[in-house]
Amino acid sequence: MQNVINVPTREEVSSVNQEIFDNLKKSLGFLPNLYATMGHSANGLSRYLAYQNAKSSLSNKEKEAVNLIVSQVNGCVYCQSAHTILGKMNGFNDEQILDMRKGRSENVKLNSLLQLASDITKNRGRVNEENKAAFFQQGYTNENLVDLILQISDKTAMNYLHNLTNIPVDFPVAPTL
């Protein structure tokens, strides 16, 4: 697939986005191409980062598990690759990351989260009642359910942006399942 749009340089974006680019480079050590691509919108990058960084009842590990399965279901190699790195930074090993991309975990609670996240993504919110019941049986709450849906929407937006633009992956490419 050919790129639909370019990855803009700092000089090609608004002054607000230039400042965000600089801050991302300072905090991450580089500016990921997918974030830079959002710089085409004068407000999109700041809106997205505020949404992504908002507080959640899900732990960072749970959010990374959701990011991995949603990116797998949506076929986004960019996000699979980025969240393989972020998953490792949050304490998962290679085998656990591959398992989560396959929608499973040896941790029963995390497995219920992965199953429901996969089901929500594949079926656009129309889920198998057993998956929903298992999620609540593992101690998750209504608050967690709302935050799960928000996490799925966060990741789906980025998956769609990459799948549409096919901008270059600037992380080590995740293995194909």
Task: Summarize this structure as a short list of keywords or feature phrases.
177 residues, mainly alpha, AhpD-like, 9 helices, 64% helix
Short description:
The chain is mostly helical and 177 residues long.
Strand elements, count: 0
Rg over C-alpha atoms, rounded to the nearest angstrom: 16 Å
Termini distance?
Answer: 20 Å
Shape: globular
Order of helices and strands: HHHHHHHHH
CATH superfamily of the largest domain: AhpD-like
Return the structural class: mainly alpha
Q: State the name of the first-level CATH class of the largest domain.
A: Mainly Alpha
**Domains, number:** 2
Give a written overview of the molecule.
There is one protein chain. It is built from nine helices and no strands. The protein has 177 residues and is mainly α. It folds into two domains: 10-52, no CATH class; 60-165, Up-down Bundle (AhpD-like). Helix 4 packs parallel to helix 7 (108-123) and helix 4 (60-73) crosses helix 9 (142-165). The longest helix has 24 residues, at 142-165. It is globular. The model has no long low-confidence stretch (mean pLDDT 96).
List the helices and strands and how they pair.
Blueprint: H1 15-28, H2 33-38, H3 44-52, H4 60-73, H5 77-89, H6 94-101, H7 108-123, H8 129-137, H9 142-165
Helix pairs in contact: 4-5, 4-7, 4-9, 7-8, 7-9
